[in-house]
Amino acid sequence: MLGGTGRQGGALVRELLRRGRPTHALVRDPEAPGARALADAGAVLVHGDMDDEASLRAAMKGVHGVFSVQPFRTPGGVAAEERQGRAVGDIAAGSGVAHLVYSSVGGAERASGIPHFESKWNVERHLRTLDLAVTVLRPTMFYDVFEEISPRRVDDGLVLGMWLRPEVPVQIIATDDIAAFAADAFDDPAAWAGRQVEIAGDELTGPQMAEAYARVSGVPTRYEYLPIEKLRAVREDLATMFDWFDREGYRADLPELRRLRPDLITLETWLRANWTAPVLQP
């Protein structure tokens, strides 16, 4: 398990342990709180780093399956992400790993021009050249983004602002659902190996998201379309991504995904478990 102390990897560690699967987690600091939490949950900690190929080889010795996910918000950026993703695949193939599940991104294959989409597509293409059974999961936007883009309080309620036209829907997913699909792939490699599957849990427009916030908080919530030009001045990568949402967007087959997993987490369900409405200051 790579990225075990991150959101996706941590969710998968918990899911695999819940299913009774022995799980090893690669961690840089076994004494860090996140690593200790994994150990307390029952994971075996393996000291290593994705930039240390010797530690990756040691970690994969005798391992049946590998979950591969790399962060792009690091000092090395997307170049480091791509380098690490390629190295993990190479070492997995050379170590006799039976099945690798790679977490990419929805739309990676569609020339989005978004740097952290293109890096994942480059890793995907490299994995295809290896003698290795690979499942590629392509998650859509994470619910966790609402920890950064959260409604603000105004006198008459809440306002959810996003850089997305009100009529345009965007697909979203919970990291717990990414973990469930990844665990399914490990449980049934015959059905999942060799596939590239875009995954989502819900699909909503901005006003529909605002309605979900209103139902959870009991506070009137309206949607506000924010001009993307202002975002572009401070976060070019984020602006490029929202521009792509507006023009192209994700294409996960939600009806089929809900057939496979009827309990997919909706935005409203996620908010009830993870969000508290801001208090109006007197």
From TrEMBL:
The keyword Protein biosynthesis does not apply. Pfam families: NmrA (PF05368). It comes from the Bacteria. Keywords: NADP. The keyword NADP applies. InterPro entries: NAD(P)-bd_dom_sf, NmrA-like, NmrA-like_oxidored. Residues 2-252 form the NmrA-like domain. Belongs to the NmrA-type oxidoreductase family. This is NmrA family transcriptional regulator. It comes from Streptomyces uncialis. The lineage of its organism: Bacteria, Bacillati, Actinomycetota, Actinomycetes, Kitasatosporales.
